[in-house]
Amino acid sequence: MMRMSPPRSPLKNVPRVPEEFATRYRAAGYWTDETFRTFLSTRAARYPDHQAVVDGDRRFSYREVADRADRFAAGLLGQGIRPGDRVVVQLPNIAEYVWMLFGVFRIGAIPVFSLPAHRHREITHFVEKSGAAGYLVPETFGGFDYRGLAREVTRSVDHPPLVVVVGEAAEFVAHTSVDGDPDELAAVESPRAAPEDVAFLQLSGGTTGVSKLIPRTHADYLYSVRASAEICGVGRSTRMLVVLPAAHNFPMSSPGVLGVLHTGGTIVMAPDPLASTAFELIERERITMASLVPPLAIGWLNAPNRERHDLSSLEVLQVGGAKFSAEAARRVREELGCTLQQVFGMAEGLVNYTRLDDAESTIVSTQGRPISEADEVLVVDDDGQPVPVGSAGHLLTRGPYTIRGYYDAPEHNSASFDANGFYRTGDIVRVTEDGYIVVEGRAKDQINRGGEKVAAEEVENHLLAHHAVVDVAVVSQPDEYLGERTCAFVIPRRTDDGEIPTAVELKRFVRGRGVAAYKVPDAVVFVDEFPVTGVGKISKTQLRKALEDELRR
Ligand code: AMP
Ligand code: DBH
Questions:
Q1: Is the same domain home to 386 and 424?
Q2: CB 119 within 8 A of CB 90
Q3: If you take atom 6 of ligand 2, which residue's CA is the nearest one?
């Protein structure tokens, strides 16, 4: 395919950690010289024949995965991808994810992570915002045609990226053009990736119209991966089932795929999130660890066929991404016979874990404590004043693996970070006497749909594009299964004969705008006006309360 290369430019507007802090993080050994460029080859040298990745009947040793990564890297070079180029990665949980990702790292290119659920609108934004030169997709997955999506994306951007389709890439590894000669890689050994440079752009759940990209460096991320691996007790004998989308920050790094590869363990890719699929794999592969969002964990607890499977190999079940109720948490040890680890993290940085040897009461009733003694946690009131220990307030944080700003978003950063560089998480928490965090709520304008974050403003903008929508406010509504679901309050424009659009029509409209399905509102409620606050702003608190009152009735 003929392709115009995008104009090459380095990443611009990447806020950095001030030198005074960087010096401290290096001196403490948090930041080291290691980079993702050599991460996999180092592990392959250490554990060459150990099983690294299992995907269905396909099994790959560390040496095999590293070889494939090298050949893919050489192939990318042959196709014109260069160090510093951005490459959007949209791959499902398949073995190729691992070597394609490390192939991108190998040549010093910068992955831009996206989820399989993302569609034309999101991917176009990621490609344009990052100035991507490449885009990796499966051919089809879960019945969806990603090749068609890639075609659509390349048609709508000024500088279409090189599209690499996995189905083909798998063949490429055998005989065609995205398979290169690893000797060619010598040409890109220099310039070396610097450990404090941006390694990749990670996804944020976001609170704004389009999601912001999170610049993570080799040094900061690898620190969180190493420390997480230790806290979570992963090692060579760990066999981790990857159920959540592998590119999500939780299954990637807490300790996730990277933590397991760091220590020479084995990754087993789950092809779908069904409990029955997971149970079969746990039994067959002797899985020791898995990470889930609360709705999936509850699905495991409630699965009728659980007794039919031998789940005795499972040692640790991690649950995070959204609040896990104490009632459900208590059931994990009782019914699954393994240790629960609650995980409260964010792609921007800070990750909290309950420790494996914590008292059961701590494990079930808190969301854990920070990874690092260098993580700074502040809990403040609406005026920014610290609250007494044990009281609820806004969580602010700063530390050796928390960003100081989003990529190329100066205006937004001045709101999301305080003058001292603390990230305003938007979460309402309280901290116990012994330093454990309990998540009490949220101040940010976001819906946490079972761990999938939906920015209210983004959905509102899509609905406002409909000709029959005068105004809209999107809020969360309690949901038994998801924890929260999305409800759009809409003031409709009536036609001359008094007709208004239907809820179904508006949902279909949002879907038709080319966004991930999880962003389509679950409910649409038509109203004549919105309740307003004292200063005349739409009161989302009152709208949420109206929904809760209705639910109670
Ligand atoms: P993101 O910034 O998109 O990576 O999403 C991180 C957000 O997910 C956090 O700021 C919390 O709002 C939410 N979150 C993650 N883990 C938990 C948890 N265990 N309990 C409650 N909320 C969580
Ligand atoms: O929700 C998250 O973003 C999240 C949850 C748990 C996360 O990024 C993480 C652990 O690292």
A1: yes
A2: no
A3: 345
Q: Are 386 and 468 in a shared domain?
A: no
Range of the domain at 522: 450-552
Domain containing 155 — which CATH number? 3.40.50.980
In the β-sheet with 349-353, what is the strand arrangement from edge to edge? Answer: 58-61, 51-55, 266-269, 239-242, 289-292, 316-320, 339-346, 349-353, 369-370
Cβ–Cβ under 8 Å, residues 111 and 87: yes
467 with 425, same domain: the answer is no
Q: State whether residue 292 is helix, strand or coil.
A: strand
Distance, CA of 174 to CA of 176 (rounded, Å): 7
Q: What is the CATH number of the domain that holds 427?
A: 3.40.50.12780
What global pTM score does this model have? Answer: 0.95
Probe residue for ligand 2, chosen from 200, 343, 367, 425 as the CB with the greatest number of ligand atoms within 8 Å: 343
- DSSP letter, residue 336: I
Say how far residue 33 (Cα) sits from the centre of its chain: 25
| pLDDT 10s digits, 385-413 | 999 999 999 999 999 999 999 999 999 99
Banded pLDDT at 187 (limits 50, 70, 90): low
Residues 394, 459 share a domain: no
- Pocket residue to mutate for ligand 2, from 224, 351, 367, most atoms within 8 A of Cβ: 351
Domain boundary among 443, 475, 497: 443
296 and 357 part of one domain = yes
Q: Is 282 in the pocket of ligand 1 (CB under 6 A)?
A: no
Residue 189 clears pLDDT 70, i.e. is over it: no
Report which of 86, 131, 130, 128 is spatially closest to residue 104, judged by C-alpha positions: 86
309 shares a domain with 226: yes
**Pocket flag, ligand 1, residue 132 (CB < 6 Å):** no
Q: Distance from the CA of 321 to the center of ligand 2, in angstroms?
A: 5
d(CA 544, CA 553): 14
Kindly state whether residue 209 falls inside one of the protein's structural domains: no
pLDDT digits (tens, 9 = 90+) for 281-291: 999 999 999 99
Q: Are residues 268 and 171 in the same domain?
A: no
In angstroms, the Cα distances linking 408 to 6, 10, 83, 404 are 18, 12, 20, 12
Domain count, the chain: 3
